[in-house]
Design brief:
With about 325 residues, the protein is of the alpha/beta class. It is built from 11 helices and 9 strands. It folds into 3 domains: about 40 residues; about 240 residues, Rossmann fold (3-Layer(aba) Sandwich); about 35 residues, no CATH class. It comes from Acanthoscelides obtectus.
Length: about 325
Amino acid sequence: MNSAKKLYQSLNIAGSLALAVFIPWIVFKVFRAVRLQKNLNELVGKIVVITGASSGLGKALAHEFYKHRCQVVLCARRRQELERVRSDLLNTHCTVETAQPPIIIPIDLSELDSLPEQVKKILSITGHIDILVNNGGVSHRGTVISTTLDVDMKIMMVNYFGAAALTKAVLSDMIKRKQGHIVFVSSIQGLIALPERSAYSASKHAMQAFADSLRAEASLHNISVTVASPGYIKTNLSINALTGSGASYGQMDATTEKGYKPEYVAEQIIKAVVEKKNEIVISTIIPKLAVFLRKYWPNIYFILMNQRAKKSLASY
Ligand SMILES: NC(=O)c1ccc[n+]([C@@H]2O[C@H](COP(=O)([O-])OP(=O)(O)OC[C@H]3O[C@@H](n4cnc5c(N)ncnc54)[C@H](OP(=O)(O)O)[C@@H]3O)[C@@H](O)[C@H]2O)c1
Ligand SMILES: *[C@@H]1O[C@H](CO)[C@@H](O)[C@H](O)[C@H]1NC(C)=O
Ligand SMILES: *[C@@H]1O[C@H](CO)[C@@H](O)[C@H](O)[C@H]1NC(C)=O
């Protein structure tokens, strides 16, 4: 009898405690959801320039921003693919009352000298740019020894210098308007390097550092900088990756195949943008653990990477 009473009492206490945690948690969740919705509503009419919009994550980002009634400016090399994305946008979201239809500006990020001119062209059409999403990029498959310096430079040119040049070109107008947002699509490989990805990892590490430096400077002008570092996404990135000789790798890697859906990653990025997050890592636990190890227990990370190299290079 006595023990039953005790049990009842302790259950009661446990229940109250659970409620005391649960109710604020629910309130917090609701508050967050309401705030997110309010922030997303502020996207209406914003002018968003997206590079690499012809495929994969860039295409998914175009859908996500367009869905929230932004005017999107689609940039990449392949005009035909951009046109396909534009008609997809118009057909898929025909219920969306966007003020302005998507704009297509074909650009080659490796032609650095052409980029300021392209930005001028965009500005002459839209008047200003609210958000620049540096997403266009190319990956790499090959050892350091088998990769020509030409390939290193090509990847650096698109992933790093292309983004840097475009950012410089949009910055002065943003500074004048005292607002703007620059987004960098980096990668987990901007935080840690894997064997056989030297050029790619280096270009994304460079991007992260550039963004961190810019963030501090831009804060003086009310301009935000967000760096997104996703893990594997199911896109054509590995197919389009360059090998050591500069040829197309042409294969869908198993890791890429099993990666996140581009739509999911795009949604996470757009949330980070409206919440003005400085950075966001979008990945499963293992890559996050690797980032942690690299920072706080580097020798373990190096051993793991040696093993990874041994395993994959044994097949050569
Ligand atoms: N997939 C992943 O696992 C993964 C993981 C982390 C980060 N990321 C990053 O996500 C971004 C998008 O890649 P994705 O996965 O969507 O791969 P993707 O399907 O191959 O898309 C790459 C995009 O970049 C554009 N691009 C490539 N070279 C260009 C150049 N010289 N000038 C202009 N645009 C160029 C391509 O368009 P054109 O060919 O028409 O020019 C294409 O739209 C990249 O920055 C990538 O590093 C991807
Ligand atoms: C990959 O490339 C093919 C051929 O260009 C294209 O049909 C497909 O839509 C691309 N995939 C993604 C996710 O963009
Ligand atoms: C800073 O930028 C935000 C939009 O990102 C804008 O609403 C606000 O008015 C800007 N503040 C100033 C002081 O210009």
